[in-house]
Design goal:
Chains A, B, C, D: InterPro entries: Class_I_gatase-like, ThuA-like, Trehalose_catabolism_ThuA_prok. Chains A, B, C, D: Residues 9-224 form the ThuA-like domain. Chains A, B, C, D: This is Trehalose utilization protein. 4 copies of one chain form a homotetramer. The first copy, chain A, has helices at 18-21, 23-28, 33-40, 62-66, 84-96, 110-116, 211-225, and strands at 9-14, 47-52, 70-74, 99-103, 123-135, 149-159, 169-176, 181-190, 193-198, 235-236. By secondary structure, chain A is an alpha/beta fold. Chain A has a domain at 9-117 and 185-225: Class I glutamine amidotransferase (GATase) domain (Rossmann fold), CATH 3.40.50. In chain A, β8 (181-190) and β9 form a beta hairpin. In chain A, α5 packs across α6 (110-116). Chain A is globular. The B-C interface holds B 132, 134-138, 148, 159-162, 166, 169-170, 173-176, 179-181, 183, 242-243, 245 and C 132, 134-138, 148, 159-162, 166, 169-170, 173-176, 179-181, 183, 242-243, 245. β5 of chain A pairs parallel with β10 (235-236) of chain B, so a sheet runs across the interface.
């Protein structure tokens, strides 16, 4: 059976502030998280572009959004700097069918909070802890090519309660050394689009060079890129010519 | 086994514009939809108050919100007139544990759209059509005391695609004469709160005098009023005294 | 973006009794439902084999099962004639990763009831009724290439309550002329496998020549064929060398 | 708002072999797990009876089953000794509306496997490990009166992958010292009944004296005891007097 690759057009959006301001982070991601991801995903047959917060319109022009099948999002310290008009456009694109992969601290991104409708709050701790992301749905295509768990020697802890709607499909649950658990791979269907939240990726750890993490992101892109059904029509529907009592 | 009644403190919020402006509607609900519901729910042991759009702060003062266990919401032609600050407060109360029952055209209410994160769009038609609300989860407490379906001789048709997240629990699916179906009883867990969307209730039909419809609303109030677990703590968690490698 | 085809190895299992015993059915499916489906799916790039009830081991030998990515199942009047040992093997294969598409009256097949754990009972009526299968999740890949609904001029009615677990993903809900609704496209993750129940296909109607019905079955095959994660290990796990208090 | 108590008629079924054969276990549960649970649940207003494996018909006579609102089940080393006819009766009762709470090693009970349709396999280890059961749905009534997590100083580890269907409602996720996670509080709607799987309770630890564990079981009993809608009718439905084209 052939391996499916979607050839999706992917835009990787990154805040790109830490990498330019914090020497520790610059060392880990000298070209920025967006370019590390772009390189890490190079072998998957996607058409990858990048966009960052400080570009005009955050790089998310109408043209870019219209030609993006899946948007990958990393943000952390400047969620408030994202323009509300752009958030609105991204939101509409997702409901129209664009996939969205939200990474790590993107749980507090305006676009993720808008789509989830909850606070998206969680517990956190930076203590170089080991994380194990256990696969809880081995049938799910987002888990393809992954073993029973992914082990990351050092990550920032995120712990429950994670204030999100129950995922339509829960794929990963994480274990942290310090005693916490976290629903770390969460898939949602929203409108004609698909959203996947994936936890790992604190900026000071080389997480986005991990081949399992990259595999999951690639799987998520393929999952989110899959075409669904026709765009529904909404609004007033005329009286049908049949089937209404007394009006046939 | 004893029947459970929650004695919940209920606030019924109603737009209350149609009943005062449209003689057809005034005839059906002379005291307003909110008072019809209040009377209809009188036998269920709730503590019921009402609030309407044109009251100061839409009747949803901090005091009212803090002392409301379940908020019932009916709105249609003036969703935009609902103050964003009030919407924000209601949203916070839901995440803190207040139940929310959204009726009929409330699918376009700001609070419902905010909680759902989708457009909440649908198809509609006013043609005095028969509606059958089929119970698809006979195990669910919101269906208590209801038969296999509720039949309403005349209602406004709402049809799929209904742009909402897949309900955590789908309780009713409606059939309409004209050929449409609609997920008409949809339950969600959001934060510490619970939300139930219930479709029937076009203002020109006496739907809120129907004892089965009232039973479902009462069941939904009891379901949404049920207490859950402790309020989670969010934010930074200190390094635990044990279990971190090299720090014991 | 490229259209994904899985090249899956598909086995179409058919009871094949009606077509040989009932002239009305023979007329609709002269080569049997299995061959009509095989022809109808010919353009989708699958490797298709067939198997029927009255073949030795119902055509589901260990060799066939081991080399099947997705099994499609149609049965109606002879569910009891299916050997329990074969059912057991099919069940194991699904939990190991084989996809399963169950059609129409297959809701009472031993394998479907075993996987669902419920009675799988429903209401039915043969009255040449029109059926509309509405897409309720336009984001779902099983709805790819389909419009807002599929209309079948004549089908056997199946109505709620359909005693199944709530689908992990509900894709279609049907409307019938006579007043019933039915959850007609239901997707489940079970073990490492995926199951899709699809309602249409009464033996006396030419349903399996309908291009939309065939498209959904093909979509479902691709969905069910997708590889997931590694096969989990179960059972006793030795004490880890670290992280157990007092044993490091 | 009044606290809801269902006054449910509860039958606690226990294998009751370990307590009589293993001195370590006898010490922890001298009267048997069933009586420890009965005492522990004494303040919740239930009508509690017990039944054990070695009683005639395992204590689950037709009379007992008909008058049981919620059945609690603990079994471990003798699942095979449970009579298939009794399993069938329990299964039917659940589909008719009896609640079922399955504890700990009951994951391999015939009745649980039958209802789930999967292998229900998992990983395990006996190493006196600490367990933390985190609440992942603080809105759920099964979490009522519980803090952010329940900590058990010593329990037997159960780890993912736990081969069950995705719970309709996931309430608890456990953390274990040794590196594993486990979906430890799983709620399902099946037919007219409700099933809750709750992990803790290895026979050699005093888990069933823990007041939080007892609180969860009591909450689960109330949740599972709640009445739903009318018993659906299944089977052939006559042609309706209206709404069929050409037959009005």
């Amino acid at each position: 059976m052939t391996e499916s690759t979607s050839g999706a057009r992917v835009t990787i959006w990154n805040e790109y502030r830490h990498e330019r301001n914090n020497p520790i982070v610059t060392k880990v991601y000298p070209e920025g998280i967006h370019n590390a991801l772009k390189e890490g995903l190079a072998s998957y047959g996607f058409e990858i572009g990048t966009a960052t917060l400080d570009e005009p319109q955050h790089g998310l022009t109408d043209e870019v959004l219209e030609s993006t099948d899946v948007l990958v999002w990393w943000g952390h310290m400047a969620h408030d700097d994202v323009d509300d008009t752009i958030v609105e456009k991204v939101h509409n694109r997702v409901l129209q069918g664009m996939g969205l992969i939200v990474l790590h601290s993107g749980h507090y991104a305006k676009i993720f909070k808008k789509l989830m409708g909850t606070s998206c709050a969680l517990k956190w701790r930076e203590a170089d802890e080991k994380e194990r992301l256990w696969v809880v749905n081995p049938s799910h295509p987002i888990a393809a090519g992954i073993g029973e768990y992914i082990e990351l020697p050092q990550e920032e802890m995120y712990g429950e309660h994670f204030d999100i709607p129950a995922p339509d499909e829960l794929v990963f649950v994480s274990w942290f050394e310090g005693g916490e658990v976290f629903r770390s791979g969460c898939a949602y269907y929203r409108g004609q689009g698909k959203v996947f939240y994936f936890r790992p990726g604190h900026e000071s750890y080389p997480t986005y060079y991990n081949k399992d993490v990259l595999r999951v992101i690639a799987n998520a892109v393929n999952w989110a890129a899959a075409t669904g059904g026709a765009t529904p029509a909404y609004g007033h529907v005329p009286v049908p010519l049949e089937r209404i009592r007394g009006r046939e």
